[in-house]
């Protein structure tokens, strides 16, 4: 058959085929655009981007220096810190959690400037809480601005997958306008900067941290389940590191105006705006897996903080304590513990960190 000769029937069908072709191309382009939303540079090596924070003997680097394994054993935990401070940015890593019995363990991926601004530091946290074998991992996000430790803005969730089986991407987007926490490409939380927040919204340059440590005193069932070192070492793996932002000297009194263009470029990225599809995914996640939100904790905040957007479907889920009405919905403790945050410098020497509010 000569494919360059068209019958009358083929000529009549050609517009239909052309239309179908255009639909396929358009659909493919849209899908590709969604996929490329996280098409960030992941070629950084550990030596280019991070340095040891504490217990270097428990940090293992791959031969190509693109994967870092942080260990917790009976001697110490371990941690790393970005080599630079950033004035806003997008920070991300593919992380695989420890397996087996992980009660009492905390793995953290976060931004902070506590070592430069000890009394008025900023911080954005993603903290993963281990559990007894067979129970799901839990995690929480938090925001502190200008030393507002007593006004932490924590939310707590249950994992919808086993994070110890495969690596998953965890990301923190931080701009002058909003902060978004992502798990893979699912936006799980957005904080939009409100004028009334004032210094409670993080605005000073921060470094990026990753740590693993023993939090037996509070992390699992209110401290009833301790780290069982029979299963040591506990290993968490970080790879595909992303540090996108304007590098600055945090001691400068006036931050360089050179960041203006880079911040504008950051804000223009696809992942700084949650799409309608992303809103649906976030709604699904929050209504199914969130088990505490400070926005609904009327005992702690008689008036919800200014950035809180009260969602009726979420409001129905929680009691005035900000905890679920249905206690049996999720496994694990809902008790709250406070984090001591005097200085991480001291904890570097001891191989651990202070506890996060639970």
UniProtKB/TrEMBL annotation:
<feature type="active site" description="Proton donor">
    <location>
        <position position="127"/>
    </location>
</feature>
<feature type="domain" description="GH16">
    <location>
        <begin position="44"/>
        <end position="238"/>
    </location>
</feature>
<keyword id="KW-0808">Transferase</keyword>
<protein>
    <recommendedName>
        <fullName>Xyloglucan endotransglucosylase/hydrolase</fullName>
        <ecNumber>2.4.1.207</ecNumber>
    </recommendedName>
</protein>
<dbReference type="InterPro" id="IPR044791">
    <property type="entry name" value="Beta-glucanase/XTH"/>
</dbReference>
<keyword id="KW-0964">Secreted</keyword>
<keyword id="KW-0326">Glycosidase</keyword>
<dbReference type="GO" id="GO:0048046">
    <property type="term" value="C:apoplast"/>
</dbReference>
<keyword id="KW-0052">Apoplast</keyword>
<feature type="region of interest" description="Disordered">
    <location>
        <begin position="329"/>
        <end position="358"/>
    </location>
</feature>
<keyword id="KW-1015">Disulfide bond</keyword>
<keyword id="KW-0134">Cell wall</keyword>
<dbReference type="InterPro" id="IPR000757">
    <property type="entry name" value="Beta-glucanase-like"/>
</dbReference>
<dbReference type="InterPro" id="IPR013320">
    <property type="entry name" value="ConA-like_dom_sf"/>
</dbReference>
<feature type="compositionally biased region" description="Basic residues">
    <location>
        <begin position="332"/>
        <end position="348"/>
    </location>
</feature>
<comment type="function">
    <text>Catalyzes xyloglucan endohydrolysis (XEH) and/or endotransglycosylation (XET). Cleaves and religates xyloglucan polymers, an essential constituent of the primary cell wall, and thereby participates in cell wall construction of growing tissues.</text>
</comment>
<dbReference type="Pfam" id="PF00722">
    <property type="entry name" value="Glyco_hydro_16"/>
</dbReference>
<dbReference type="GO" id="GO:0071555">
    <property type="term" value="P:cell wall organization"/>
</dbReference>
<comment type="similarity">
    <text>Belongs to the glycosyl hydrolase 16 family.</text>
</comment>
<keyword id="KW-0961">Cell wall biogenesis/degradation</keyword>
<dbReference type="GO" id="GO:0016762">
    <property type="term" value="F:xyloglucan:xyloglucosyl transferase activity"/>
</dbReference>
<dbReference type="Pfam" id="PF06955">
    <property type="entry name" value="XET_C"/>
</dbReference>
<feature type="active site" description="Nucleophile">
    <location>
        <position position="123"/>
    </location>
</feature>
<dbReference type="InterPro" id="IPR010713">
    <property type="entry name" value="XET_C"/>
</dbReference>
<dbReference type="GO" id="GO:0016798">
    <property type="term" value="F:hydrolase activity, acting on glycosyl bonds"/>
</dbReference>
<dbReference type="InterPro" id="IPR016455">
    <property type="entry name" value="XTH"/>
</dbReference>
<keyword id="KW-0378">Hydrolase</keyword>
């Amino acid at each position: 058959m000569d494919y360059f000769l068209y019958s009358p029937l083929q000529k009549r069908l050609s517009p239909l085929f052309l239309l179908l072709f255009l639909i396929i191309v358009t659909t493919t382009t849209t899908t590709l655009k969604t996929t490329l939303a996280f098409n960030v540079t992941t070629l950084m090596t550990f030596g280019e981007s991070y340095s040891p924070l504490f217990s270097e003997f428990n940090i293992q680097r791959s031969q190509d220096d693109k994967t870092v394994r942080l260990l917790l054993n009976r001697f110490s935990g371990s941690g790393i810190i970005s080599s630079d401070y950033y004035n806003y940015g997008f920070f991300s890593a593919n992380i695989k959690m420890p397996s087996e019995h992980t009660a009492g363990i905390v793995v953290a991926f976060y931004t902070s400037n506590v070592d430069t601004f000890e009394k008025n530091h900023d911080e954005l946290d993603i903290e993963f809480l281990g559990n007894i074998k067979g129970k799901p991992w839990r995690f929480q996000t938090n925001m502190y601005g200008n030393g507002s430790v007593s006004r932490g803005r924590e939310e707590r969730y249950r994992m919808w997958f086993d994070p110890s089986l495969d690596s998953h991407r965890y990301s923190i987007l931080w701009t002058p306008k909003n902060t978004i926490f992502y798990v893979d490409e699912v936006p799980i939380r957005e904080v939009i900067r409100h004028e009334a927040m004032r210094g409670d919204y993080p605005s000073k340059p921060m470094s990026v941290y990753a740590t693993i440590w023993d939090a037996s005193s509070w992390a699992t069932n209110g401290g009833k389940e301790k780290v069982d070192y029979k299963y040591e070492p506990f290993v968490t793996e970080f790879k595909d590191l992303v540090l996108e932002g304007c590098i600055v000297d945090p001691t400068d009194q006036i931050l360089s105006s050179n960041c203006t263009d880079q911040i504008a470029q950051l804000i223009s990225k696809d992942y700084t705006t949650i799409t309608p599809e992303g809103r649906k995914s976030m709604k699904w996640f929050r209504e199914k897996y969130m088990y505490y939100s400070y926005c609904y904790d009327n005992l702690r905040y008689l008036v919800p903080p200014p950035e809180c957007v009260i969602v009726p479907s979420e409001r129905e889920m929680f009691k005035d304590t900000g905890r679920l009405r249905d206690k049996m919905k999720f496994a694990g403790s809902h008790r709250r513990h406070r984090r001591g945050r005097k200085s991480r410098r001291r904890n570097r020497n001891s191989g651990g960190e202070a506890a996060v509010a639970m």
